[in-house]
Amino acid sequence: MEGEVAKVCPESYAMKGGEGPHSCAQNSASQRSSIEAAKNFLQSAIASKFDLRTICASSTNPICIADLGCSTGPNTFIAVQNVIEAIQIQCPSQQNHNQATPEILVFFNDQVSNDFNTLFQKLPPNRNYFAVGLPGSFYGRLFPRQSLHVVHSSAALSWLSELPKELTDTSSGACNKGKIFYTNAPKEVFDAYERRFKMDLEAFLQARAQELVDNGILACLILVADDLIDFSVDMYAGKDYELLGSCLMDMAKLGLISEEKVDTFNIPTFFPHVKDLMKIFEANKDFSIEQSELIDNKGFLAPNIESHVSRLRAVLEVLIEKHFGDGIVDELFDRFTEKVRAYPEVLDALKFKFHVLFVVLKRKVVIKA
Ligand code: SAH
To answer: Has this prediction a pTM greater than 0.90?
Structure first.
């Protein structure tokens, strides 16, 4: 095995498991809306860009699909079904009834700390595929060489493999004392996040380039920022995280948590500008860009303050407890709810200048020496 197979994500940021009120399973409507909005693009991309006839005709092996960063469901099941429908329309057996329908194997991947039990319990009982859970970081190798036909990933690549070290280094210009994110912070903080994101995405593409078959498809939904956003001054971008950071500072001032803990806490997500993200894909030698679409974000916003807070809590609770210990999240999110009430603009679609980019890449054919 090669070295990169063993590359392990140093930190693990799984979402809240189970099916409780603050679980990821109950709070993933935003992501679901973009998966649904991307369905037609995904299906037409698979229909036109991926020639399955050759694979179905020449191979007895199953068609292998992976959803990377699947969480606990149910969104992953919808995404996977969308991929399978697109594949089945193309299979020769649809036209020729003498031929067996190809078998389909689906790998559900997420961090080792993901709640795979909930995922397994929720697997659709009448599914038309074999299902496997695959724990591990998608920033390293997860599968054998040339073993996958279609890879899908939604709302997962925003998560960095680790936080940039400079954020907590008091001698660095990128030290992010008193803040928990890069908005309205020194430019060096944004730059440090961006460098980490770029390295991570390149590692992701390098691993997938090895795992996908020639002409295999990689379809990703990625949260992106409007190219017009200047993160160092735009008061609405990341306002949520700023409000949450100010709640943490308030709690530190009251002695409920230590200020040093707040200074060393940063949220490990990054939302690239569309043009910068496309540059990373364009520079990649292993994939061609087949399609890219900006998906309307209106369905992405929560309908009211309570569900807005609950959605953010599902994403951040595990991370916050890991850093600050048990027992602060209820108070923190009560305080946060009050701040959002005083600042309801965070739910305003016009001010929320984030989108979802749907991009389809194709693995270029490997020329064998
Ligand atoms: N795809 C689902 C879930 C998105 S939430 C949907 O669209 O609804 C993002 C998921 O990505 C989380 O479950 C998180 O644990 C996972 N994730 C983040 N970083 C990861 C990594 N390096 N490797 C695998 N999964 C990761």
So the answer is: yes
Structural domains counted in the chain: 1
What pLDDT, in 10s, does the model give residues 25-64? 777 777 888 898 899 999 999 888 887 776 665 566 899 9
In terms of phi and psi (left: phi > 0; alpha: psi -120 to 50; beta: otherwise), the region of 20 is beta
Q: pLDDT tens digits for 311-357? A: 889 889 989 999 999 889 999 999 999 999 998 887 776 677 788 99
Cα(83)–Cα(78) distance, rounded to whole angstroms?
Answer: 9
155 lines ligand 1 (CB under 6 A): yes
Q: Which domain holds residue 181?
A: 24-363
* Distance, first Cα to last Cα, the chain: 21
CB 71 near ligand 1, within 6 Å: yes
- Provide the greatest CA pair distance for the chain: 73
Ligand 1 centroid to 70 CA: how many Å? Answer: 6
CB of 108 closer than 8 Å to CB of 154: no
Length of the chain: 369
Instruction: Assess whether the C-beta atom of 110 lies below 6 angstroms from ligand 1.
Output: yes
Supply 40's token pair.
């037609």
List the CATH number of the domain containing 158.
3.40.50.150
For 298-356, the DSSP string reads GGGS-SSHHHHHHHHHHHHHHHHHHHH-TT-HHHHHHHHHHHHHH-GGGG-TTT--EEE
